[in-house]
């Protein structure tokens, strides 16, 4: 597949990294020649320096025979015009644009994105995606990472194990025997900084960061077995009243469980905009690092603290101060994945990586086969792929134990009709089933091959 990626920043570079590693023909376009050079030096991609919305620049990038264009520059308007030029001049079949301004995303203007208006096939909103990821952390407060799959019926949980975990030093195969009715599977373990897919004989140890697939109905029981308790969050403090913080506060206001939230914002204009946009949420103008302001906001009585500014260092320091002040759960927005190793020493309970969240959203629309969802793990170390099994697929009419999955792949959950089941070796995968697979990054191309069908099928 020939793909043009416009924008060589963090998101564009990461998408190029994913797609080029899977032997796609990738060209990166950016008006910053240094970013283009970095991509060409570190990835197997071509590069063109210039403005992505210029027809001659897209022509040099090979738009005439491109299968897809992904517009992920820092400018919404450039992304929109790029898709328009790709459609009108070069007839590129599929166009994806990242749009950040909420004005472009209002539901009443959704008719704007049509072939006869603005021909954008998929609109990605990073702020909305990140806000939803933050809310998912609140819904599963004992986890450091979480994502929903199979129409919300299954959930991936990232759980850090400590000495209170009852299943330490227990081979994974025995978990099935001990908890025969529990619909949960450990699909990955991070130990001493290394992420791997476990074997049935592997044991769990204190300090491990585990990724667990569970049926949503078994969420509370799964957390209890792995030494965690789910406490209801009623009082929330948010530092950062920008697009992400405002989106989270607005969604909290619309929830039926009446969560009481307060927003702290340093910039007066942004604070005033947040106050005008919110109905029941208290907005405080001040520095989220100011301990006296945190105390005034009631940090010692808060159930959750969300550090959602656009500055990683501010988020880390604010979250650490909130933890010291007695807040039981702190979540930090972290753009730089190399900083995630500080989460445990700083006692930060969970983090959200906007780059990984946006990349996951875009990859969801790029994958081959009937892929319905893609979630990126860590610094592009692994992916969780949800896909429908088609009849010509090598997976169809096979029992799981008979499929030659790579060592870095594990089936996390399977949906047959409306029922989500825990997959075992004897489970037969049939046409129409929806499967979720945990895959190490190096094994994604082979998984895509297993999910693909021949062009004759269509």
Keywords:
458 residues, Rossmann fold, Alpha-Beta Plaits, 4 domains, six-stranded parallel beta sheet, 13 helices, 28% helix, 26% strand, disordered C terminus
Q: What's the overall average pLDDT, rounded?
A: 88
Total strands: the figure is 24
Query: What integer value in Å does the Rg equal?
Result: 23 Å
Percent helix among the residues? Answer: 25-40%
Classification by helices and strands = alpha/beta
The largest β sheet comes out as:
6 strands, parallel
CATH first level of the largest domain: which class? Answer: Alpha Beta
How does the overall form come out from the CA principal axes? globular
Question: What does it look like?
Answer:
The chain has about 450 residues and is of the alpha/beta class. It has four domains: about 1-125, Rossmann fold (3-Layer(aba) Sandwich); about 130-225, Regulator of K+ conductance, C-terminal domain (Alpha-Beta Plaits); about 235-355, Rossmann fold (3-Layer(aba) Sandwich), CATH 3.40.50; about 365-455, 2-Layer Sandwich (Alpha-Beta Plaits), CATH 3.30.70. The chain contains 13 helices and 24 strands. The protein has a six-stranded parallel β-sheet, with helices on both faces. It has a six-stranded parallel β-sheet with strand order 14-13-12-15-16-17, with helices on both faces. A five-stranded antiparallel β-sheet has the order 7-8-11-9-10. Helix 11 links the parallel strand 15 (about 305) and strand 16 (about 330-335). The chain starts with a strand and ends in a 7-residue tail after the last helix. Residues about 455-458 have low confidence and may be disordered.
């Amino acid at each position: 597949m020939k793909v043009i990626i416009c924008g060589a920043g963090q998101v564009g570079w990461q998408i190029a990294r994913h797609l080029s590693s899977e032997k796609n023909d990738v060209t990166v376009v950016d008006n910053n020649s240094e970013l283009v050079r970095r991509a060409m030096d570190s990835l197997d991609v071509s590069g063109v320096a210039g403005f992505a919305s210029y027809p001659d620049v897209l022509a040099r990038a090979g738009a005439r025979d491109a299968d897809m264009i992904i517009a992920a520059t820092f400018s919404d308007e450039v992304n929109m015009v790029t898709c328009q030029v790709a459609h009108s001049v070069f007839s590129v079949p599929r166009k994806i644009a990242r749009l950040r301004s909420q004005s472009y995303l209002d539901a009443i203007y959704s008719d704007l994105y049509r072939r006869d208006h603005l021909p954008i096939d998929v609109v990605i909103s990073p702020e909305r995606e990140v806000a939803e990821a933050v809310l998912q952390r609140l819904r599963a407060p004992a986890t450091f990472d979480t994502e929903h799959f199979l129409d919300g019926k299954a959930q991936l949980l990232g759980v850090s194990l400590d000495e209170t975990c009852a299943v330490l030093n227990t081979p994974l195969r025995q978990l099935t025997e001990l908890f025969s009715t529990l619909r949960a599977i450990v699909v990955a373990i991070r130990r001493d900084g290394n992420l791997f897919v476990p074997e049935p004989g592997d044991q769990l140890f204190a300090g491990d960061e585990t990724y667990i697939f569970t049926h949503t109905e078994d969420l509370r029981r799964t957390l209890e077995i792995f030494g965690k308790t789910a406490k209801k969050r009623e009082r929330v403090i948010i530092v950062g009243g920008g697009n992400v913080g405002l989106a989270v506060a607005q969604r909290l206001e619309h929830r039926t469980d009446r969560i009481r939230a307060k927003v702290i914002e340093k910039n007066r204009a942004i604070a005033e905009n947040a106050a005008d946009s919110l109905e029941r949420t208290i907005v405080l103008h001040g520095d989220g690092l100011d301990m006296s302001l945190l105390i005034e906001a009631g940090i010692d009585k808060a159930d959750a603290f969300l550090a959602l500014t656009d500055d990683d260092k501010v988020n880390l320091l604010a979250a650490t101060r909130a933890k010291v002040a007695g807040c039981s759960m702190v979540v930090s927005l972290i753009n730089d994945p190399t900083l995630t190793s500080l989460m445990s020493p700083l006692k930060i309970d969970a983090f959200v990586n906007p780059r990984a969240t946006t990349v996951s959203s875009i990859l969801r629309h790029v994958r081959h086969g009937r892929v319905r969802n893609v979630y990126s793990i860590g610094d592009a170390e692994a992916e969780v792929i949800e896909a429908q099994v088609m009849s010509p697929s090598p997976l169809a009419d096979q029992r799981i134990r008979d499929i030659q999955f790579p060592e870095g792949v594990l089936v996390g959950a399977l949906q047959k009709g409306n029922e989500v089941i825990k997959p075992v070796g004897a489970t037969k995968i049939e046409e129409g089933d929806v499967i979720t697979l945990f895959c190490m990054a190096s094994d994604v191309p082979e998984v895509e091959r297993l999910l693909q069908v021949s062009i004759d099928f269509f």
